[in-house]
Design goal:
Length: 503
């Protein structure tokens, strides 16, 4: 398929991680091969136009934008629709036709209070006493309880989904104590099984594993080494996994962080109960997660409208697009591809090597604080690295201030969450989505929460004021009243992240 762009038209969509390269306009040249998800984040076979047009396919596709000409190639049918006036119109039409929202059963705890994850503090060395110490530290340092995720390392090995008793001598007591503190508890899991174990041999003998074309269990390589993969197309394999998860739920576990499942770790042509693509395996892992009201996903294909908490991929402790610089653009593309329930990864960065390799020299308190201020205005605010450990008291007070700003605007955030659940619209919206035709198509560093809150946090180093594009109308910034005819203004950020209220 090939067609020409319209004058002043801009396109958004595809891979969430490519948000920093969007939107694509008439003068841009970019090519993306999305026939298999090449990123560690969400991908939808969808592109939306600011002029009310959209592209959709049931399969991934290759798309080229070259100085106003758009070329799309794919294995499946490419659908091109137009006549929907603007970006919002294109999104709503595409959603209605191709990814109507499921019943959203996600717990509101994700949005009501911060989420905490033990990964940066404990990495692979999860242990009962350390988890409790982290939880107590949260409360002792003035933060409120919320969802607590115990990350990779809590089980003996992959596929044996029970607490390792050497590091967790009494997990039942730990869960009771965490619940008494006010936390809900989630556990990290993956769709893989460590070879040369009883669980591996059981799954192999029952035919629950992905097999090579020669019929042998596929041993796949992923970031943690080598594992066998569960056949996600086989209901018996999923029942085998769910039985273990049910036992954890009976113990007191509230939900699960569903990691891995990246298409790149699977091999096309492998044998399963049903022949599916590597993208489809990623989607099946996400579909399995929907049954839990406490879930978190990171990499998905064609899961717009699913009842899932969607995290941005592990961000570096960096000002660039792989760190703080990517938070707002990626979250905007999440919303425009049907994934409104988003978490901007772990505050300060979830890439743990950023905190291991000479982190005392590389760690920047200002970056951590700015990351926190951005996250405070996102659907989900997730801590992992303990800010009270890393920051001096004066910087930690800025973190607490950001949390207070979130509490101030929590009613509006929750209102946008309910709108997303019922209507499928983004929680964090692009400026062009809410105010079409005012020249804000390329604005990717500020956003709307609902229709009345404009968030313009700072995401650059050594900056205390920034340019904000203010839509037409009357706005309030603190005690300052601003009348705008739709123009940019330089505004100073004083205490906490900058939020303008439409009045």
């Amino acid at each position: 398929m090939e067609f020409q762009m319209i004058d002043q038209e801009y396109w958004y969509g595809g891979a969430v991680y490519e948000g920093y390269r969007q939107p694509v306009g008439m003068d841009d040249c970019v090519e993306w091969d999305f026939r298999e998800n090449p990123t560690a984040n969400q991908l939808m076979p969808l592109f939306l136009s600011s002029k009310g047009r959209y592209l959709w396919s049931e399969e991934g596709f290759l798309i080229r934008f070259h100085e106003g000409k758009v070329t799309v190639e794919g294995n499946g049918e490419i659908e091109f629709q137009e006549g929907f006036q603007n970006l919002r119109g294109a999104y709503l039409a595409a959603m209605k036709a191709h990814f109507p929202f499921h019943e959203i059963r996600l717990s509101n705890r994700f949005f009501e209070a911060p989420v905490y994850n033990t990964w940066i503090e404990l990495t692979f060395y999860q242990a009962q006493d350390k988890v409790l110490e982290y939880a107590r530290g949260i409360l002792e340092h003035g933060l409120e309880p919320g969802i607590l995720m115990i990350d990779d390392g809590w089980s003996p090995y992959y596929g044996k989904w029970e607490f390792r008793r050497d590091n967790f001598p009494d997990p039942e007591a730990m869960l009771r104590e965490l619940h008494d503190m006010g936390f809900q508890v989630m556990l990290w899991i993956c769709p893989f099984i460590t070879p040369d174990t009883l669980e591996y041999r059981e799954a192999r003998d029952k035919g629950l594993l992905i097999r090579t074309p020669e019929g042998k269990p596929r041993i796949l390589e992923w970031w943690n080494g080598y594992s066998a993969g569960l056949d996600l197309t086989n209901p018996e394999a999923m029942s085998w996994l769910k039985k273990q998860m049910d036992q954890l739920r009976e113990m007191g576990v509230d939900g699960f962080k569903f990691d891995a499942g990246d298409p790149c770790y699977y091999t096309p042509g492998d044998l399963m109960q049903e022949g599916v693509t590597t993208n489809e395996l990623s989607r099946l892992w996400a579909a399995f997660a929907e049954q839990y009201e406490f879930n978190e996903l990171r990499v998905c294909f064609k899961t717009g409208g699913y009842s899932l908490l969607q995290r941005l991929c592990d961000k570096h402790h960096s000002w660039k697009e792989n760190g703080v610089g990517g938070l707002i653009p990626d979250t905007l593309i999440q919303g425009l591809t049907g994934h409104p329930f988003g978490s901007p990864d772990m505050i300060g960065g979830g890439e743990y090597l950023s905190f291991w390799e000479d982190y005392e020299e590389k760690f920047e308190p200002e970056l951590f604080v700015r990351y926190c201020e951005i996250a405070a205005l996102m659907p989900v605010m997730q801590f992992s690295a303990a800010p009270w450990r890393l920051l001096k008291p004066e910087d930690y007070q800025k973190v607490l201030k950001a949390v207070e700003v979130r509490k101030k605007y929590l009613p509006q955030i929750l209102e946008a969450v309910e709108c997303a659940k019922k209507m499928g619209e983004p929680i964090v919206s692009h400026m062009e989505y809410v105010f079409p035709g005012q020249g804000m198509e390329r604005v990717m560093d500020q956003f709307m929460i609902g229709n009345k809150l404009l968030a313009a946090p700072i995401n650059e180093k050594d900056v205390t004021a920034r340019e904000v594009w203010i839509p037409k109308g009357k706005w309030k910034l603190g005690e300052l009243i601003l009348e705008s005819s739709g123009e940019k203004r330089v505004l100073e950020q004083k205490e906490g992240p900058m939020v303008l209220e439409k009045i």
